[in-house]
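Please fill in the sequence for the structure shown.

STRUCTURE ENCODING:
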């Protein structure tokens, strides 16, 4: 049995096949049937809280159908999400941390199914009906009832209690003699999982179980050594047999209704349709035929067209065809594409879009209605909180009394439904009014000023009163500027002399800052409480009330105007996830209904319009890719009737095959083979063109199909698997046949598949032709041609009715119509002298599979009986008078071929003699196979043929067993622990902390009178059982010393009792427990097939066609990301920082690799004699310090694997492992040597310690064994030199460990020695994230044969990943910003990049300490968003938190501070991104071109970011403030304010202390602030109005004598466009600014306020400005002026050095191949030199690395891989080769000694072979090459290792060719011989039988 985790639930089932055979063992038959038959219902879903965790399913294996234990994804997902919602997203994304918040106690349960069901019934978990279903499923007669599948289940009984139930297979513990060993293995493995998941188990035993339990069985006195040893004595038995032919009932396979209909087809339109049993000596298959009567045939075609071609292509296809839309394959999206782009009928979609819009509106209304009820309650919650806030105002505010009452339950419901809603409300009801904050600042400042005055006045009441009035005046003053307000009410500030100005200024700023800090830090509630209780106002209630009312007034304004907006934000976010999902589902459902109805309606309209035509065009799918469309059609074309041929194969389950091996009388139970739940493989032929002449089946599922082509008048022979044959017939209009023979239709055929012979008898010419297969079945050649037989029939053409081979011989039987049968011998080409007369009414003639007899089948009437009839069935002798026909077989033994040696009547129900074939099962049983047309079944008769001879058999000795040993099965309820510990380790070798003692409580369904006695007896039994276990296995058993057992009656059992739980359960964290569950089940991670290393995704093969479409070249990255380890992915991520050690085991098949690995690491690889391990399997063991990754490898040197596949496995093992256990594989060292030549000698990956284990070495032989192996290694190292694999792959060292004989106590002690080796081994993977990354990249490299260093590949992948994440990192300071937010991470450790807290005072002077917002999630860059939009949030933040622009008196200072703030924000982002890049490249070589280019690309983008946030600083177009757009903007300058001056009029006296109005000028103007309410100055229009910088009104005194009106501006600007206009390398440039020179001064050159050169740097891609401070330096007098930014630049040119800069691997899809071939291409890298500052280019030629390595340009002519030596090397080229699909091994035909023009491929047609591996292991061989000098060759003066070929040979037959030696072949390639050390290759063997390598183009 395989225990492998595929990560998916496999519920596939076969056709229901009822077994109705007459086997004498009905229970065994029932077990076989019940276990694998499709269940009608699964009871798991009927029980609340029950989750299936481990499931049993069937899987096909090379040894048959086996059981597989897998984790149930469906139920584990349900468990996780039921416990913690959304914790399980996929098998690789499980939130184990969240799941660890759930803890529960757990008890394991196993044993009697009925008692477990009774427990569930008693606890009201199931009802009586379910209980009946549970218990009735054991019944033999009721297999179709609902049942619970075998496996392990978790039952959640309470929140903190669970039962882990092992529900056994039927018959698991029953006393059944022939119980399946597979069931026993399942029992052991599932018990192992139960004990690993729980420390406490309960075994349920009924009174019957107890009665049958032998409590003395494990008593040492009753167990001799012989009884406990496995039966291993055999003997050779001789038996003298007489000729005998007996029949008995065989198997019966029920067929589905569909197949039953097929087999009853007979004849239609003169086409025979009756079924055929396939002739085969080793397989049992049949073929059905159906006539597909279609005058029109559908061809599936695909069009790939542009948007313009689509309607034209469609119109062409519609000619004489009506249109049909496939309702199954097409969906609404595809239909829309078809309507819009193909039919150009957009109007058809209007009703659909209208209906969907209406549905959206309905859903929105339902959404609003559903949420409105919750909003009312939320509003009430907010109102209550507001009232609580208002209560702080005490009596000064009136409260609403209209709050409606809401149930507490409603509040609770809202809290649960909207987590965090109260916090949101509390945040939103915080007063965010700017005026409120200003009032708080003003109030705080006033308090500071007044408190200082009161402190000076001390107890003076007058001063206090005066201060109170001053307090009110200052608080209500109209002055908005706090600095001026402070000056106004602090006379010392006004009267201070100049020398005190600085001190007073500091004092003022400090107090203002203090007031702001108090306003920001003190919550509003606390502020109001202090305001209301302020002692200063005692006795001044009127002033106090006025001040409080000011705040209340602003509060009410905020509550009315602003709060609704705040609250609206909450309401916008109120979307209950469950409610939204529900409504979304409703919409999706409604949408589906609408789309379904409209889909049908639109299809009908289209089909109505396009209804004309005699043929049909079906639209199957429409897909859009960019501007191209892929449309799949079924197009009808005239087609004659088609004959559909369907092959049905059968197979035996693995257990069935074993039973047949052990018992020749056992009746097996074959089942139909299925492919993806589909039975049968079909294809079609034209019956007008082809007739089926013969079908036979050979080994490896290959069929020999012989068709006669009536049109071409020839025989066409096809030889392949049914699946491949069907694929070829379906995909090709012209089918390439295996062999073609030209002949007329007068022939019959015989096949002898054991001998590989095919005979064709020409009935008209009476001649015979014999063909034979080569040994590898690759070619059929003519062996004997034109054998004339007419003379043997007296020159009279015989009427041959039957013609067959006597199987396994070289004799043919000819049966004439008269019944005369003769045997022709192919060795002497003569008939036997004797002949035999068969019955005249023959129906069929067959040969037995061994050729011992010939069977003639006849249908006879009862009156034709004769005396020679014999039968072994008494019932068959009592014939009924009504019987009209008897089926009879006449048996003629080959040695005495004269008369029938036996005549037997067949059973009455065995009717279809014409379908009969004879076949052998497992080389043990012979079956006559037929089809029962009436009952729809494939059935057989078991035939036993005995020859007259002495037979010898090697068989087990029959021994009498004691009663105890016969009844061992009854004790398996307890003995399962012994069986489990025999197979798996008891004590953990690597982690003693995992040795948790087990506790067993045996639950007996008996009265409690003798319960104590049973407790003692079971304890004695278990003690004896474990003593025997220790004695016979010599395993360490310290854990068993703490094993405890007790007994309790079922009646007393109460699992819900608290005391019981404390004593008999353990507590687990759910997350860790699920991890333990997942670690138990290994997963397959890779396989080797077709000479390829193929990584898997979640245990399954994945589609790789997407790789061909990739254009970015990151194939290795994409392949590695497509590799997934199923459940282990999430575990590695969860333990991301934990160190990883990899232990692996390799060796030949069945040498105990898995057993040793299990006992060393503690895994559960189920190695067995069936060597079911295929490829590479992974398992995890989690300890406190490490994650141990165990890799179990397929056995090497197997017949199923090629040397190249073995080499891939060995290389992968070496690269990834820390410690390798290599068992008994001394003959495989060359595979390691082959691998050493591929990968570069990379110390990063070649760190494994190789332990060569020689098993079963007695102590006395250890030294000799070590010397032998030392000698082997010494010889290998001497031959290979520095290239030896030990040095290159294992750090020049390995361990040779002679392992003790199995069963010796030293065997297990040796594991501790290996464990110490493992402990000392340096950690190869510092954390799980690194391991996950490295192993996937290694697997991807092996897949595509990328032999470059792992470091280089990891560098490329890391840089590609960083480049992909870089835009988001720069824009948001995050790696991911979508549905999931992901911080910047160090990808080597998984830790986030630090986002340090920053204080405002660290950036700006004279500002109090305030923590700034963090960097992450600030949006700073977006190519599609303007700078004004990007900067809006930061402007508001600065204005509110740091410094308000409206309140500042110094605009220049504000701009300076704002610039510093932005500069810090940008520099912080740049710093974090650089740190992120640096940390993720810290372990990479900094001089690597990928790292350099990646850093350059990052710096380029960071420069863009910095430039984007560089402020313009020129004057605003509408006022006099500075522009705060970015410096490179092209539109008008803008300060992004309202452009109004916010200062009050300076003519204060004129307003008589009234409210002073604000200034009417633009912000930032020169001169005094003037209002418009009172005419303070002239105010007449300025004479220069319209000029730039004009303030528009005269600022002179009223009535000034001169008539010239001028404003306050000291200069009126010219305003003409700046004169700067020039041509640069990047195009023409014209300065957009206006002249600021005085209009009064004459000037010819106009100059703007920008003094620096605004032109961009002339270097390509540089966006910085020119460094010159001269705006007009372009006019310096030179013809051309360079504009340089003054920085160093990267060169953008490509490397010019000779040779190849970089070799890359790209996929190349092979036509009609399921796999992708990878090829090498060359790539030019960018120059790595820097362009010096103020230079346009660097010195010297372009190079990617000064004096760096460049590859040679030579390519291997076969695989295309580049030479790995440096350009210009002098020695032979050398490379690490790739795949060569052209070279093949051939053998020349033996038909004609002088003709060598025909050859046969003999290498199994493998197309993916490393070109240097073709010659491997061939010994002496030769190559074919084009002749280089034909004249010399023909004169025979050529070299000794060349032989000219005179005949023409494909390819290019006209070009002369030579045989050449292996050495010369590689010399001519110019590349180093991969195997120069093999002396055989140097020899030139020109024998015609020599294997020849051919690779010519």
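FILLED IN BY: designer on duty
SEQUENCE:
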């Amino acid at each position: 049995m395989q225990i492998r985790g595929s990560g998916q639930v496999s519920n596939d089932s076969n056709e229901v096949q009822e077994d109705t055979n007459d086997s004498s063992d009905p229970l065994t038959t029932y077990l076989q049937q019940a276990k694998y038959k499709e269940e009608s219902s699964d009871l798991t879903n009927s029980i609340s809280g029950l989750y299936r965790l481990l499931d049993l399913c069937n899987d096909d294996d090379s040894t048959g159908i086996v059981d597989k234990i897998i984790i149930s994804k469906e139920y584990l997902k349900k468990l996780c999400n039921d416990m913690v919602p959304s914790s399980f997203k996929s098998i690789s994304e499980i939130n184990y941390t969240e799941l660890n918040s759930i803890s529960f106690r757990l008890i394991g349960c196993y044993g009697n199914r009925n008692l477990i069901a009774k427990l569930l019934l008693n606890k009201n978990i199931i009802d009586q009906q379910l209980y009946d279903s549970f218990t009735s499923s054991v019944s033999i007669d009721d297999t179709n009832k609902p049942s619970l599948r075998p496996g392990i289940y978790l039952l959640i009984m309470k929140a903190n209690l669970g039962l882990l139930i092992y529900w056994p297979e039927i018959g698991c513990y029953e006393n059944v003699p022939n119980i399946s060993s597979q069931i026993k293995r399942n029992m052991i493995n599932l018990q192992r999982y139960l004990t690993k998941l729980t420390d406490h188990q309960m075994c349920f035993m009924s009174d019957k179980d107890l009665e049958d339990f032998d409590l003395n069985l494990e008593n040492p006195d009753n167990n001799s050594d012989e009884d406990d040893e496995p039966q291993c004595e055999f003997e050779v038995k001789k038996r003298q047999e007489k000729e005998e032919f007996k029949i008995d009932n065989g198997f019966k396979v029920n067929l589905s209704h569909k197949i039953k209909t097929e087999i009853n087809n007979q004849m239609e339109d003169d086409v025979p349709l009756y079924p055929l049993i396939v002739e085969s000596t080793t397989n049992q298959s049949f073929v059905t035929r159906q006539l597909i009567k279609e005058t029109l045939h559908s061809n599936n075609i695909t069009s790939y067209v542009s948007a313009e071609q689509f309607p034209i292509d469609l119109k062409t296809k519609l000619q004489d065809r009506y249109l049909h839309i496939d309702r199954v394959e097409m969906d609404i999206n595809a239909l829309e594409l078809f309507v819009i782009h193909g039919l150009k009928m957009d109007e058809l979609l209007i009703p659909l879009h209208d209906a969907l819009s209406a549905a959206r509106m309905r859903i929105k209304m339902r959404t609003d209605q559903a949420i409105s009820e919750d909003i009312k309650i939320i509003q009430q919650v907010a109102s209550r909180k507001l009232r609580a806030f208002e209560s702080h105002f005490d009596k000064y505010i009136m409260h609403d009394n209209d709050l409606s009452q809401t149930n507490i339950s409603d509040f609770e419901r809202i809290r649960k439904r909207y987590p965090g809603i109260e916090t949101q409300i509390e945040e939103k009801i915080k007063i965010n009014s700017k005026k409120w904050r200003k009032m708080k600042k003003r109030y705080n400042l006033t308090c500071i000023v007044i408190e200082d005055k009161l402190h000076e006045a001390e107890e003076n009441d007058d001063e206090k009163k005066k201060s109170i009035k001053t307090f009110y005046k200052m608080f209500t003053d109209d002055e908005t500027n706090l600095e001026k307000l402070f000056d106004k009410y602090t006379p010392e500030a006004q009267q201070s002399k100049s020398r005190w100005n600085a001190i007073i200024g500091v004092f003022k700023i400090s107090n203002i800052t203090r007031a702001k800090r108090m306003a920001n830090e003190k919550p509003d509630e606390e502020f109001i409480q202090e305001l209301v209780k302020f002692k200063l106002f005692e006795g001044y209630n009127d002033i106090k009330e006025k001040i409080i009312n000011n705040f209340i007034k602003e509060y009410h304004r905020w509550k009315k105007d602003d709060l609704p907006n705040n609250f609206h934000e909450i309401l916008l976010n109120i979307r209950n996830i469950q409610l939204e999902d529900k409504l979304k589902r409703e919409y999706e459902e409604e949408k589906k209904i609408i789309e379904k109805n409209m889909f049908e309606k639109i299809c009908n309209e289209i089909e109505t319009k396009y209804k004309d035509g005699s043929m049909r065009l079906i639209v199957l799918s429409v897909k859009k890719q960019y501007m191209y469309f892929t449309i799949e059609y079924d197009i009808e074309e005239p087609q004659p009737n088609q004959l559909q041929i369907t092959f049905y194969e059968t197979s035996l389950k693995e257990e069935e095959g074993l039973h047949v091996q052990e018992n020749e009388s056992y009746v097996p139970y074959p089942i139909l083979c299925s492919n993806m739940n589909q039975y049968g493989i079909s294809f079609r032929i034209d019956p007008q063109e082809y007739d089926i002449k013969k079908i036979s089946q050979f080994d490896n599922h290959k069929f020999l199909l012989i068709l006669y082509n009536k049109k071409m008048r020839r025989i066409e022979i096809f030889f392949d698997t049914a699946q491949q044959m069907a694929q070829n017939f379906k995909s090709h209009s012209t089918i390439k046949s295996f062999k073609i023979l030209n002949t007329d239709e007068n022939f019959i055929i015989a096949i002898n598949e054991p001998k590989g012979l095919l005979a064709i008898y020409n009935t008209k010419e009476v001649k015979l032709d014999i063909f034979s297969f080569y040994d590898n079945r690759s070619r059929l050649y003519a062996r004997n041609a034109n054998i004339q037989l007419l003379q043997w029939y007296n020159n009279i053409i015989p009427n041959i009715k039957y013609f067959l081979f006597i199987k396994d011989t070289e004799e043919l039987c000819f049966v004439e119509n008269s019944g005369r049968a003769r045997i022709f011998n192919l060795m002497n080409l003569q008939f036997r002298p004797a002949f035999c007369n068969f019955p005249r009414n023959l129906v069929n003639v067959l040969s037995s599979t061994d050729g011992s007899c010939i069977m003639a089948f006849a249908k006879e009437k009862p009156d034709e009986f004769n005396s020679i009839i014999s039968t072994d069935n008494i019932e068959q002798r009592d014939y009924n008078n009504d019987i009209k026909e008897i089926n009879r077989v006449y048996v003629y033994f080959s040695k005495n071929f004269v008369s029938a040696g036996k005549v037997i009547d067949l059973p009455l129900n065995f009717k279809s003699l014409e379908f009969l074939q004879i076949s052998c099962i497992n080389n043990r049983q012979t079956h006559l196979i037929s089809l029962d047309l009436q009952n729809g079944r494939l059935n057989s008769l078991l035939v036993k043929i005995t020859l007259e001879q002495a037979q010898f058999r090697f068989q087990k000795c029959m021994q009498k067993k004691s009663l105890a040993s016969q009844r061992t099965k009854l004790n398996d309820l307890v003995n399962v622990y012994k069986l489990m510990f025999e197979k798996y380790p008891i004590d953990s070798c690597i982690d003693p902390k995992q040795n948790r003692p087990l506790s067993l409580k045996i639950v007996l369904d008996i009265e409690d009178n003798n319960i104590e006695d049973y407790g003692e007896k079971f304890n004695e039994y278990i003690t004896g059982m474990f003593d025997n276990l220790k004695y016979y296995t010599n395993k360490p058993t310290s854990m068993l010393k703490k094993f405890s057992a007790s007994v309790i009656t079922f009646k007393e059992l109460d699992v819900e009792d608290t005391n019981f739980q404390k004593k008999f359960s353990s507590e687990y964290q759910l997350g860790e427990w699920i991890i333990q569950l997942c670690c138990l089940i290994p997963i397959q991670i890779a396989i080797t097939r077709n000479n390829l290393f193929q990584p898997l995704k979640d245990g399954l093969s994945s589609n790789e066609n997407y790789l061909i479409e990739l254009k970015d070249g990151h194939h290795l990255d994409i392949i590695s990301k497509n590799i997934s380890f199923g459940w282990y992915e999430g575990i590695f991520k969860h333990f991301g920082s934990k160190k990883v050690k990899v232990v692996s085991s390799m060796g030949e098949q069945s040498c105990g690799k898995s057993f040793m690995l299990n006992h060393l690491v503690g895994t559960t690889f189920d190695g067995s004699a069936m060597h079911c391990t295929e490829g590479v399997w992974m398992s995890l063991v989690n300890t406190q310090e490490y994650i141990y990754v165990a890799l179990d490898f397929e056995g090497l040197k197997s017949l199923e694997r090629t040397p190249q596949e073995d080499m891939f496995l060995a290389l992968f093992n070496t690269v990834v492992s820390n410690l390798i256990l290599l068992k008994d594989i001394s003959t495989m060292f060359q595979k390691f040597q082959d691998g050493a030549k591929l990968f570069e000698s990379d110390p990063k990956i070649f760190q494994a310690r190789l332990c060569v284990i020689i098993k079963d070495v007695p102590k006395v032989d250890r030294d000799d064994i070590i010397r032998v192996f030392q000698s082997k290694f010494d010889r290998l190292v001497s031959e290979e030199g520095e290239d030896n694999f030990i040095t290159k792959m294992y750090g020049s060292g390995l361990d040779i460990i002679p392992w003790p004989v199995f069963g010796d106590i030293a065997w297990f002690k040796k594991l501790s020695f290996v464990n110490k080796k493992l402990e000392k081994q340096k950690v190869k993977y510092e954390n799980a994230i690194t391991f996950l990354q490295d192993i996937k990249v290694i697997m991807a490299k092996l897949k595509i044969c990328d032999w470059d260093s792992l470091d280089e590949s990891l560098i490329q992948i890391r840089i590609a990943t960083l480049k992909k994440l870089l835009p988001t990192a720069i824009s948001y300071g995050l790696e991911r910003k979508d549905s999931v937010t992901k911080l910047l991470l160090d990808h080597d450790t998984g830790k986030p990049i630090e986002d340090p807290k920053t204080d405002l005072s660290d950036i700006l002077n004279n500002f109090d300490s305030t923590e700034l917002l963090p960097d992450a999630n600030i949006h700073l860059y977006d190519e599609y968003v303007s700078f004004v939009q990007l900067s809006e949030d930061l402007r508001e933040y600065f204005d509110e938190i740091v410094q308000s622009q409206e309140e500042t008196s110094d605009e220049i200072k504000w701009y300076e501070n704002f610039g510093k703030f932005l500069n810090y924000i940008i520099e912080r982002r740049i710093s974090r991104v650089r740190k992120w890049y640096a940390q993720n490249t810290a372990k990479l070589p900094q001089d690597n071109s990928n790292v350099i280019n990646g850093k350059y690309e990052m710096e380029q983008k960071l420069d863009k970011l910095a430039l984007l946030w560089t402020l313009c600083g020129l004057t605003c177009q509408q006022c006099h403030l500075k522009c705060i757009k970015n410096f490179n903007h092209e539109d008008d300058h803008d300060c992004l304010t309202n452009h109004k001056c916010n200062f009050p009029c300076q003519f204060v006296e004129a307003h008589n202390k009234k409210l002073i109005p604000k200034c009417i000028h633009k912000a930032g103007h020169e001169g005094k602030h003037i209002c418009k309410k009172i005419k303070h100055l002239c105010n007449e229009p300025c004479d220069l109005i319209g000029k730039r910088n004009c303030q528009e009104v005269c600022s002179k005194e009223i009535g000034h004598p001169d008539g010239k009106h001028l404003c306050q501006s000291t200069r009126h600007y010219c305003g003409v466009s700046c004169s700067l206009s020039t041509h640069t390398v990047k195009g023409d440039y014209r300065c957009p600014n206006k002249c600021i020179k005085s209009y009064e001064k004459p000037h010819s050159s106009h100059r703007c306020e920008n003094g620096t050169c605004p032109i961009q740097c002339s270097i390509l891609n540089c966006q910085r400005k020119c460094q010159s401070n001269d705006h007009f330096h372009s006019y310096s007098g030179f013809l051309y002026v360079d504009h340089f930014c003054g920085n160093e630049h990267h060169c953008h040119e490509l490397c010019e050095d000779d040779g190849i800069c970089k070799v890359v691997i790209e996929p190349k899809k092979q036509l009609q191949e399921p796999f992708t071939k990878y090829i090498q291409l060359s790539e030019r890298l960018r120059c790595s030199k820097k362009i010096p500052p103020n230079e346009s280019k660097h010195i010297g030629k372009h190079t990617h690395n000064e004096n760096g390595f460049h590859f040679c340009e030579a390519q291997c002519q076969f695989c295309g891989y580049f030479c790995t030596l440096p350009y210009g090397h002098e020695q032979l080229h050398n490379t690490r080769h790739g795949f060569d699909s052209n070279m093949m091994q051939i053998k020349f035909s033996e038909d004609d000694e002088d003709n060598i023009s025909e050859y046969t491929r003999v290498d199994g047609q493998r197309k993916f072979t490393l070109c240097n591996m073709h010659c491997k292991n061939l010994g002496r061989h030769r190559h074919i090459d084009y002749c280089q000098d034909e004249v010399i060759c023909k004169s025979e003066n050529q070299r000794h290792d060349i032989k000219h070929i005179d005949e023409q040979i494909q390819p290019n037959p006209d070009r002369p060719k030579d045989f050449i030696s292996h050495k010369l072949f590689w010399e001519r390639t110019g590349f180093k011989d991969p195997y120069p050390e093999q002396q055989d290759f140097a020899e030139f063997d020109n024998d015609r039988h020599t294997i020849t390598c051919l690779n010519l183009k």
